Amino acid sequence: MQGVAKGIHRIVFYACFIGMVVVLLMMLLTTFDVIGRSIFTRPIPGTFEITEYMLVIIVLFGIAYAQQTGRHVRVELFADKLPPSGQIVLDSIFTLVAFVFFLLVAWQGWEGGFYALHVKTASDILRIPSYPFEFLIAVGAFLLSLELLLKLITSVKSLSTGMDKKEMPE
After folding, report:
1. Cβ-contact 67, 94 below 8 angstroms
2. Model pLDDT, residue 161
């Protein structure tokens, strides 16, 4: 199990790295677009479209890493009042719901990718095909689902061994 978890963590890290590179490229594109618009009165055509597609990569390739490192925002007003085992049960329920939700997002991203490929949808100005980005939605959601599954397995194990929530790895 540890080897599988390490493999998933490594894949998620590399996906996040790709997202970071895309953020850098998006910043450069936006900077050059602003310079071109301000100084030369010639903006880069299609910057808005390219930025939209880049955001898909940034968000969905970074969200699994945020789950892996425990960086998502959590509100624990109610959960803090529960005993440690109750907190783990509640956390497991929400993790299971999120796991199912993102599996559905992955499935629909996959279906949407094949649909976009079939009907040949593309962006308005640059005519960039949308199907690769639909498939990237599926990949990012699937990676998040894997991270959620690992967390769920850890939560169930800790519940069965009686481990305190504070002792659980994120």
Report:
1. no
2. 83
Helices (H) and strands (E) in the chain, counts: 4, 0
HSE, CB side, 13 Å, CA atoms: give it for residue 36: 11
pTM of the model: 0.88
Q: Which residues pair with 101 in a beta bridge?
A: none
Structure tokens at 2: 């540890």
Domain count, the chain: 1
C-alpha span between 19 and 13 (Å, rounded): 10
Domain membership of residue 120 as a residue range: 2-167
Give the pLDDT score at 164: 57
What SS3 class is residue 128?
A: coil
User: Residue 128: which region, alpha, beta or left (left: phi > 0; alpha: psi -120 to 50)?
Assistant: beta
